[in-house]
Write the structure tokens for this entry.
Amino acid sequence: MLETLKDLFAHQAWADAVHWHVISSHPGALEDPAIRQRLHHIHSVQAAFLSLAKGEKPSRSEPGETPIQDVKRGAIAFHESAAAWLNAAAPERLTALIDIPWFQDPPCRIPVGAALLQAATHSHYHRGQNATRLRELGKKPPTTDLIVWYWKGRPGPRWS
């Protein structure tokens, strides 16, 4: 599972960078409240799951409190940290159980590997919502499917 997660997180970094590039290149898209809120949400959740995987307490911020360029800087930092953590992680760490604090009744206790899988699929879901919103705004969304990433030779993220 570790190698699969490394691929999913490398794809996620590339897809997020492509996503940011396209959104930033369309006038008005970064000012759209739905897109801004989802960008904040995507990267907040990614960081929260990585914190839990590391055994740390996740931090929380509200979308309106964080300037959009800080959200992007946080996304870049997250992807660098996630790649480093996954490259150093022992495979048995993925089977360690962690509590997901935002689920209380009943509690949610899952393996680290499942939590990281959730983070990757959750991000893909919300990138899709932003792609739909871009279409509604009359813009062409990027294609960031996993198979496209493989087809293109598994490129790294290009943030600028």
User: Anything to note?
Assistant: DSSP finds five helices and two strands in the chain. The two ends are 31 Å apart (CA to CA). The chain has a mean pLDDT of 93.
